[in-house]
Prior knowledge:
The protein has 6 helices and 9 strands. By secondary structure, the protein is an alpha+beta fold. The longest helix has 19 residues, at 220-238. It is elongated and about 65 Å long. The structure holds zinc ion.
Amino acid sequence: MTALCRTRAIILKVAGYGESDKLVTLYSPDIGRVTSIAKGAKRSKRRFVNKLEEFSLLDIIYRPPRSNGLFFLAEAELADPFLSLRTTHQRYVAAMLACELVIRFTGIQDSEPEIFSLLHWLLDSLNRETEPRKTVALFHLRLLSEGGYRPELSCCGSCHAPVNNSRSFTLQPGDGSLICNRCNPNKTRSSFSLSLQTIKFLHTAQQMEQHQLDRLQMPVRAARESLRVLHNYSRHLLQRDIHSYRFMN
Ligand SMILES: [Zn+2]
C-alpha cells in the first residue's frame, strides 16, 4: 500500500457519493487539482465534521491512487474555514465562480503553486472585502495569465496604437489582444468592448504584486465590465459555459 502523505489544500467542490461517502475536489500546491474520497464523511460525526465544506483551507493526510483513480482522504484539519463566504451571498457566489474557474482552467494533478496562492488570496480577500465583484474580476484576470491566456492590454494588437481616449477598444478572444475601432471599424460595440477606464485598471492589476491587489480601488462599473469580458473570453477559450457566472449578476 502507498504511504500516507500530507499537504495543504483548498476545497473546490464537495459532492455526496453513495450512502455514506463524499467526493471532495481539492487544489493543493503540491499535487494540483485532485478528487478525493472521504469514506464515511456523510455519517461520521467525528473525523470530518464541519471540515469538508467548499472554500475551506485544510491540512490533509491522504493516500495517492496507484493509477488514475481517486485519492483517499484519511484526515483533514481545518486551517481556515473562511466562514463569511458561506454566510454572505455575494461572497459565496464570487467564491463559487473562482472555484469553477480553477476546475476549468487546470489539469488533473497538474500542480501550480501560483494558482494555489492566487486562490488563497481570493478567499482571504473575499473574507474581508466589501466588493466581491472586484476581487473575483482580479482573480479571473490573474488566473488567465497563469493559464497562458494573459490578455494583452497595453495597445491595439494590430496597429499598436496606445490605449487612450481617441479610440475605442475590444478584446479579441482568438488571441487575447485588443483591437481598436480604426482597425476593426465594423465592431465598435460588442460583448468584448472595454472602456478605457476598465482597460487601465486591468492593465495596472496585471503588473501589481499579488499582495498589493487589495489596494486597487476599482469602481463597481469597471468590475462588472471586466467580469463580463473575461467571462466571454473564457467561454471562448473553454468552449463551454461557466455556470456560476450567472449568479454574479
Ligand atoms: Zn488598431
